[in-house]
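Researcher: Please translate sequence to structure tokens.
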Amino acid sequence: MNRNIVISTDKLTKRFGDFVATNEITFDVYEGEIFGFLGANGAGKTTAMRMLCGLSIPSSGKATIAGFDVYKETEKIKANIGYMSQKFSLYEDLTVQENIRFFGGIYGLSDQKIKSKSDELIQQLGLEKERGKLVGSLPLGWKQKLAFSVAIFHEPKIVFLDEPTGGVDPVTRRQFWDLIYDASDRGITIFVTTHYMDEAEYCNRISMMVDGYIKALDTPTKLKQQFSAETMDAVFFELARGAKRKAD
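Model: Translation complete:
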């Protein structure tokens, strides 16, 4: 991880009437960093992510994403990021090959580039026999890996992962993190929300959002040193409880 800043926020705030969803959040994220963004339902992390992706204009504060201003250059932001949600953002009634071709076109890649990169991607994922199958027929773990690979198909500077491993087993989650590490090694910055304690441990740094505020931000090791084990366990219990309420 180098020290080039690719995400920078300064007192970034979003209000909905009298309700403050994110309250003066300030942090930097570095190129190639795996940055964990933690918070229970209603903590403000989804609102924050929407602002960072150029999908929602802040009420006040400053932020730049890949060097572009969140107020004036939202289209340039969108061209330089990838995004993957818990729903995987794939079209289940299209084949593996058709999904890759579709998203490659959305990202503005040439037909020749799409063909060469899609062949390489399918081989890398071991989906040669499945390239003509509908995505809806694939096991959950394969959908997950394909969705992530599609999200970084255009080699974005940053990829935002919104609870990408919900509902999959621990082994599949660990395999998914191997893909994240590989992308990070190639210089892609990973901004990921998660409710899982073990996944927080995989991040270079993690932030904890509570009621719209960032209450803590540091490496997993330093946060453990800063807070007692009981406090950390309580925080992650609340995160897990929030995830369960969302699933219900």
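Researcher: Any highlights?
Model: The first strand starts at residue 5 and ends at 16.
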